[in-house]
Design goal:
Blueprint: E1 3-10, E2 20-26, E3 33-41, H1 45-52, E4 61-62, E5 66-74, E6 86-90, E7 100-104, E8 108-110, H2 117-121
Antiparallel strand pairs: 1-2, 1-4, 3-5, 3-7, 5-6, 6-8
Length: about 120
């Protein structure tokens, strides 16, 4: 099932004004992937470097490297996470400035109940 996710994206390197919010389709996770609904995302200076072109990445680029949320779907072969788990990550690939995304499960850890989403994303 494909859902739409508001996502911060840049089509070419530039100043903060290069960022725009677009609705991107998010499908089901494939093998080794999860789909996560973000509740908080981290804002870090590496995002400025990626947006401005100091660190060159393929365009268009969805920004953000850290987030925390709830796992909505799990692909084949993923054993350390399940639907409904609170989870967090701080790694490639970029794309945390979004409501929903599919990403490699190896980059994601379960978030203990004692840690809120904002702290987990930080």
């Amino acid at each position: 099932m494909t859902q739409m996710s508001p996502t911060v994206r840049v089509d070419q390197n530039g100043p903060a004004e290069a960022m725009r919010i677009v609705d991107l389709p998010v499908g089901d996770p494939g093998p080794g992937q999860i789909r996560i609904r973000h509740h908080a995302c981290g804002l870090n200076y590496i995002d400025v470097y990626q947006r401005s072109g100091v660190y060159t990445l393929p365009m268009p680029l969805s920004l953000g490297m850290e987030a925390a949320g709830v796992v909505e779907a799990v692909g084949e072969g993923v054993t350390h996470l399940k639907v409904g788990d609170r989870a967090a990550y701080a790694s490639n690939p970029p794309g945390a400035y979004s409501t929903l995304r599919v990403m490699p499960a190896t980059c994601v850890v379960r978030l203990p109940d004692a840690i809120d989403f904002e702290t987990g994303a930080a």
